[in-house]
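One thing: can you check what follows?
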Amino acid sequence: MFNNLTEKLEGAFKQLKGQGQITEINVATTLKEIRRALVDADVSFPIAKEFTATVKEKALGQKVLTAVQPGQLMVKIVQDELAKLMGGEKEELDISANPTIVLIAGLQGSGKTTFSAKLANYLKTKKKKKPLLVGVDIYRPAAMDQLTVLGEQIGVPVHIERDNKSAVSIAENAVAFAKENKHDVIILDTAGRLAVDEAMMKEVGDVKSAVSPQEILFVVDSMTGQDAVNTAKAFNDRLNFSGVVLTKLDGDTRGGAALTIKYTVEKPIKFVSRGEKMDTLDEFYPDRMAQRILGMGDITSLVEKAQEQFDEKQAKKLEKKIRQNKFDFEDFKTQLAQIKKMGNMKDLLGMIPGLGSQLKDIDISDDAFVGIEAMINSMTPHERNNPDLIDGKRRKRIALGSGKKVEEVNAFMKQFEQMRQMMKKMNKMGGMRIPGM
């Protein structure tokens, strides 16, 4: 999402990172470039101007001009102010009540129904809750069908009343049903509406009054840029929602909404969503997002994703095999399967410091491992457990079985051996790995 902004900010900092003398003129020029980069990212000019004024004040206060590494200090100030602009601290979803009622609101086409299912999946898998999805969109029959399909996909029950034309009644009935069936979170997927539609706005207000939700989440399509911020303000004036969800972050968006929505409506971003898969929902951390915008990666999130997928007992067993230099193709295949569960490969690699900008124009398919898995599957169990046995004759058979060329099998075998040697060296140095990997 922030590729263009990251590139422009890196350009703005270059003159401060050089060997030349740092002057007030250099700092002023850098701040001008930062302001221009923010406006290009769809941040309103008044907010961009106020942001750079604050950075300038902090920079002069911390004596950037006389610092040993003025460029790095300037980057740190910008990072802190970006995180502050986006909310500063992470805000948790309040699910303390039993049952907790979460009302989902937003414009038509913003991705509310998909997000509702993603939230249910998140609460079920990561918070060990027993959620209930509720179709409260009485105007679009396809919304109920979509919610039903998604509910089946993630194994979460869906409360639907197709013949009931009262959104308030459906919500009240769903709460009663949830209490009776011991569901501890109720997610109300309301109809998409326009902020100017008085009747629709009144309806969602009535649903809110009837069931008193603990959380009201406003879903925003980040592709709409600054318009999303203006819409959020109109909805907040009416609903006083508790948090914002930014969807479609994998699209070609400039990021202005993510940067300024907290500043404008004074409500935190609680989740960000990308893609259609049910596991592509992340909690929002302003400080981590600021790091990614400045090209610093996000190792903390990468480690957390790894820890979610990697079993500690299995990891210790694997570590022992690596130490004995017995890492084989069966182990490698298991690792690939677990890495695939962590999410989109390009997004994962973008969390590694310094890689984000290099991946900007590179297309990394989620099917990148298919060819490798095909080669491993074409090996016999004995070959997988004993890589050193695979000679030229066996490689020809593996190539034929996987639909690959012998040269591709040879290249893969070479890379695998290089990886084993690297693991061996790292172990001699005491190990250096992401926990669980």
